[in-house]
């Protein structure tokens, strides 16, 4: 069901956003090692969100 795919994409977007905020916070405090870790996690979740969004879009198009 496309709705499930959209929900999964949204979860990845939210997780990526949290990781981005955490990375920014750590970089702001000068903890660049931890900031890099969070930035890498954010990138992974962003990529997963993109893939899930594409899958959701495809399923939505098929249901028309």
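Q: What amino acid sequence fits the structure above?
A:
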């Amino acid at each position: 069901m496309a709705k499930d795919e959209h929900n999964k994409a949204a979860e990845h977007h939210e997780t990526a956003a949290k990781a981005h905020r955490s990375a920014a916070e750590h970089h702001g405090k000068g903890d660049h090692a931890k900031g890099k870790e969070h930035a890498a996690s954010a990138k992974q979740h962003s990529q997963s969100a993109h893939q899930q969004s594409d899958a959701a879009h495809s399923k939505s198009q098929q249901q028309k």
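Q: And what stands out in the fold?
A: The two ends are 13 Å apart (CA to CA).
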